[in-house]
Design goal:
A hairpin with a 2-residue loop joins strand 4 and strand 5. The relative contact order is 0.17. This protein is α+β, with helices and mostly antiparallel strands and about 150 residues long. Helix content is about 25%, strand content about 20%. It has three helices and six strands. It has one domain.
Length: about 150
């Protein structure tokens, strides 16, 4: 799909639902985690949402669930735990960044649409033991999930 067709498709989805979801996979040979982010929430003055390390179907379902909650009036702040969006696991909201680079989530389509300075909230997930990446007991390799911040970062 060329860039113009992609932009038209995103515009159409945002027009119908209020946001679109974009899944980004690492280039072949890279050890980075895939990430997924929303485009469209910034038009309402809200942060775009992102998640890292999930397969495409799960990432889309999680972001659609949380974005839908926002459309229904929910407000999520950094450090907040979002209850079981994924059965058995809570997600923690952390502030993100719109800076490109290694080990980052770059919401390119949202930046192109709304310009620099959009807010980004990452939804961070725990390992099977319920430990988050900033916990000493976290049991997954770093490359499993890009983590932009800890709950206390501002």
């Amino acid at each position: 799909m060329d860039a113009d067709s992609f932009k038209r498709e995103i515009d159409d989805i945002i027009g119908r639902t209020g946001w679109a979801v974009i899944h980004v996979v690492p280039r072949e040979g890279e050890d980075d985690s895939p990430y997924t982010y929303t485009v469209g929430l910034a038009a309402r003055g809200w942060p775009e949402l992102a998640v890292s390390g999930f397969r495409q179907e799960l990432a889309i379902a999680v972001l659609n669930d949380v974005a839908g909650q926002m459309m229904n009036g929910a407000v999520f702040e950094p450090g907040q735990r979002i209850g079981e969006v994924i059965e058995g696991f809570g997600l923690i909201v952390v502030d993100g960044t719109d800076q490109a680079g290694p080990d980052t989530i770059w919401p390119g389509a949202a930046l192109e649409r709304y310009g620099p300075g959009i807010r980004l909230h990452q939804l961070v997930w725990p390992d099977m033991g319920g430990h988050y990446p900033w916990d000493d007991e976290y049991g997954l390799p770093d490359h499993e999930q890009i983590v932009l911040a800890t709950p206390g970062d501002r």
